[in-house]
Amino acid sequence: MANKRDYYEVLGVDKKASADEIKSAYRKLALKWHPDRWVNGTDAEKKTAEEHFKEAAEAYSILSDPDKRAKYDQFGFAAEQMGGGAGGFDFGGMDINDFLRNIFGGSFGFDFGGFGGGGFGGFGGQEAGPRVVRGRDIRTSVKLTLEEIANGCEKEISLERARPCSDCGGKGAKSESDIKTCPTCGGQGRVRQQTRGLFGGIGYTIGTCPQCQGEGKIITNPCRRCNGTGLERKRELVKVRIPAGVEDGMQITIRGEGHAAPHGGTNGDLLLVINEIQHPQLQREGNNLFYTRIISVMDAMLGCEVSVPCLDGSYKVKVEPGTQSGTVVKLRGKGLPSVQGYGRGTGDLYVKFQVWVPHKLSKSEKEALENMRFSSSFTPDLTREDKATFDKVKNIF
């Protein structure tokens, strides 16, 4: 952040706050802004979380130390120019993972080693242990009809993905004796180098071990089938249950059905994108469905019964005598459900009647209609419902 805020303001505590109050305030902020909570956020949200997390950690590193707090209370940020450590973000030689563990007693609830990929490069601690490798995600699509979407369905997806080697069982070596502790990092997966900070303080940089690539182990006699990776490509069928109400473009995450990770790591996920097949008669808008039915002038005048397609079969709808072109009838509950019950429940089906007027008439038909042209029944006399219908049509233009 461009301009530093007062450390007490950052933590939201009074200048007379006790050590326990300061610790409690920092704990809440660290939980709120920890990058693991914002892994699915936008780039801007991730950056904001990173800045707030660093700001809170810096404030706590000063206010939790009696000497640094006293100098900060007396000199403010100028204390850092005096070697007081205020504003230097120095944890006294302790990396941030040890610092957080001392505060939270190991119950923080996050993977402290995960900072390396979330914008906090260099904070990962050696004590965090070997890096847990995660397999890559697989992104694919599935086509669904409206009928399948209405009820939910089970689909079989054909995938080519990395799976544990059938010869070595995913270990990368035929025998356990061929897997050794990495001599460079001692099995930690990370190496630490001491550095001197901007204001003279001692700090550390943490990096992935170059020999074992963070796994903490090396293979001395690789499996011939997989060349030590522990993986092989296989084409498999995966059964996926798709909930009712999904929409075109929606993505469903199936945990653990992506690529396997080397040497027993965590599987990636399957990201399934929904492609909705257009229905030949029904149009979708959210959870609602729309259907246009063309009727004859005689049916509109005299009334009739028509069959309307629904996702669970056909449905009989009565056309009232005197139905005007543009009249809409709502079939409640004949639309689509919300995904897993979220939203406004099940949608409706709207049926719009359009009256078709013939282009050509026979001589006898013309004569019959001419006799009725000036009848009072054929002279426009709009009811309230008629006006409402015509106003809706007028708004289209």
Structural class: alpha+beta
- Uncertain runs are 81-95, 105-127
Helix content: 10-25%
- State the major sheet: 4 strands, mixed
Count of distinct strands? 15
Helix count?
9
> Order of strands side by side in the largest beta sheet?
10-11-15-14
Strand content: 25-35%
Question: Mean pLDDT, nearest integer?
Answer: 81
Shape descriptor reads elongated
Distance, first to last CA:
52 Å
Radius of gyration: 35 Å
Order of helices and strands: HHHHHEHEEEEEEEEEEHEEEEHH
Short description:
This protein is α+β, with helices and mostly antiparallel strands.
Structural write-up:
The chain is built from nine helices and 15 strands. The protein has 397 residues and is of the alpha+beta class. The strands form six sheets. Strands 10-11-15-14 form a four-stranded mixed beta sheet. It has a three-stranded mixed beta sheet with strand order 1-9-8. The protein has a two-stranded antiparallel sheet with strand order 2-7. Strand 12 and strand 13 form a beta hairpin. Helix 2 packs antiparallel against helix 3.
Topology, please?
Layout: H1 7-11, H2 19-33, H3 43-63, H4 66-75, H5 96-104, E1 138-144, H6 146-151, E2 153-164, E3 179-181, E4 190-196, E5 202-208, E6 217-219, E7 231-242, E8 251-254, E9 270-276, E10 283-285, E11 288-296, H7 297-302, E12 304-310, E13 313-319, E14 328-331, E15 349-356, H8 363-372, H9 384-395
Parallel strand pairs: 1-9, 11-15
Antiparallel strand pairs: 2-7, 3-6, 4-5, 8-9, 10-11, 12-13, 14-15
